From TrEMBL:
Function comment: Involved in the third step of the chorismate pathway, which leads to the biosynthesis of aromatic amino acids. Catalyzes the cis-dehydration of 3-dehydroquinate (DHQ) and introduces the first double bond of the aromatic ring to yield 3-dehydroshikimate.
Positions annotated as active site in the UniProt record: 138, 165
GO BP terms, alphabetized: 3,4-dihydroxybenzoate biosynthetic process; amino acid biosynthetic process; aromatic amino acid family biosynthetic process; chorismate biosynthetic process
Presence of the UniProt keyword Transferase in the record: no
Keywords tagged on the record: Amino-acid biosynthesis, Aromatic amino acid biosynthesis, Lyase, Schiff base
Primary enzyme class: lyase
Pfam family, one: DHquinase_I
Organism annotation: Acutalibacter muris
Protein name as annotated: 3-dehydroquinate dehydratase
NCBIfam families, per database record: aroD (TIGR01093)
Functional pathway: Metabolic intermediate biosynthesis; chorismate biosynthesis; chorismate from D-erythrose 4-phosphate and phosphoenolpyruvate: step 3/7
Enzymatic reactions: 3-dehydroquinate = 3-dehydroshikimate + H2O
């Protein structure tokens, strides 16, 4: 697949793209999840490599043979909601190794908590290999003030993010609207972003990207990867309804 741009992936379109997570632990599980998800209305996949224990390059080969959709590769650390404990130097090394396999995928997740220097290094390495960089931050405890969320998204862009990604945990509906407002402001300043308010309360934000500038929303296939995720099929229905007339 030709190396992508935001335009070629349709990320400037009003209706968000649906990304389906792959949460397999081995090659057999990956093949099974791809088979189970084959009829779902996804636009791209995210492969959560923090759960995976097999050979990554072999897995990427299986993906390319089974699916023609773009792929986001993510190594999510425990502090950010993943299943692998890595100190900053080890995280940097592992993501750099993943970037070296760039011919097999299109987008790479880079955690903001790795530190500014590491994030800049990784976004530059990703761009050199033709990858789009998704710089991400997840707050599972709270929803920061709107101004702080906007500053975080702008800072991600300054560090080289093609797509700044921010996920926060709401305590009430006002927190959800605060996230959505910050997302809209960031979109007006930066272009497409990825934002979501997690949990049951935050589900509205996952379907509201047409109004908030969030260009990718995550819809569960065989298994959800975060609290509050809608199934990909029901998410498509909601997006189609909300997108009428836009």
């Amino acid at each position: 697949m030709k190396k992508p741009s935001l335009e070629s992936l349709g990320l400037y379109e009003r209706t968000p793209k649906i990304c389906i997570p792959l949460m397999a632990k081995d090659l057999a599980g990956l093949s099974l999840q791809l088979l189970e998800n084959r009829t779902l209305p996804g636009d791209l996949y995210e492969w959560r490599l923090d759960r995976y224990e097999g050979d990554i390059e072999l897995g990427l080969g299986i993906y390319k043979r089974a699916v023609s959709l773009p792929l986001l590769c993510t190594l999510r650390t425990k502090g950010q909601g993943g299943e692998i404990e890595l100190d900053p130097p080890e995280y940097l090394r592992r993501v750099r190794e993943l970037i070296e396999l760039s011919e097999h995928f299109q987008l790479i997740d880079i955690e903001l908590c790795a530190g500014d220097s590491a994030v800049r290094e990784l976004t530059e390495a990703a761009h050199e290999r033709g990858l789009l960089a998704v710089v991400s931050q997840h707050d599972f405890a709270d929803t920061p003030p709107g101004e702080e969320m906007l500053r975080t998204l702008v800072h991600m862009k300054d560090l080289g993010a093609d797509l700044p990604k921010l996920a926060v945990m709401p305590k009430n509906p006002l927190d959800v609207f605060s996230l959505m407002s910050a997302s809209f402001e960031a979109y007006a300043l930066l272009g497409p972003v990825i934002t979501m308010s997690m949990g049951e309360i935050g589900r509205l934000s996952r379907a509201a990207g047409s109004f908030t500038g969030s260009c990718i929303t995550f819809g569960a296939g065989a298994r959800a990867s975060a609290p509050g995720q809608l199934g990909a099929a029901e998410l498509r229905q909601v997006l189609d309804i909300l997108g009428r007339g836009l």
